[in-house]
Amino acid sequence: MNTTTSEAQQSEFIEALNQTEVGAFFAKHLKLIISLIVLVFVGLIGWGIYSYQMDQKRLAASEVIFQFKQETMNPFMAGKISVEETMENFSSAYKQTSGTLVGLPTLVELADELVAQDELDASLRILNMAPDMSGMPYAQYFIATRKAIVLEDLGDDQQALQVLEQLRDSSAQLLSDKIYLDLGRLYRSTGDVEKARASFQHVLDNMAQNEFATLARLYLGELNAEVKE
To answer: What pTM did the predictor assign?
Structure first.
């Protein structure tokens, strides 16, 4: 009885839909439309579960980083903990933030503090812990430029060049004039005169009035004078 009534109601519903063009379309594709609605509904539930899990993961990672800063980083900055102990504790904490970017600001802060304390090798080790940032231009820029500076200060101009070349060719087009200026300096120091000249000229052609252009003009003049000699 119930089955018969239900079938009759369905038949009336479809017949009503067929009264209009739009209704007829829905009637013809009713099963597909219902399936799509179910898929969307299931997808929303899945996304909700994923978002909740990610929120919990970020919360746990934030607690780990907060604890590291309180128990290790602040004492390190006050000269109460050694570099090696700080490095070990950060490595352990950072691994627990895997899958999130919660630890990235602290990574950059610690790398800068190590440079300030003239611990360049340790700073480079910290910067090398950062994940691939190719999909995040701002983060990529801040990590790569710091890495290039540390490498240059360590005397590894070739590796510094590689880092800046990758940055130049990426989507992280922040302060590109500064990138080209630094590339020019490094090409000059490694003896690649043509690439150095092209890098300085790029700054002049694209940023003719800013402070980087002033430096590029100065470096280019020095480079031309060296070549003539």
So the answer is: 0.73
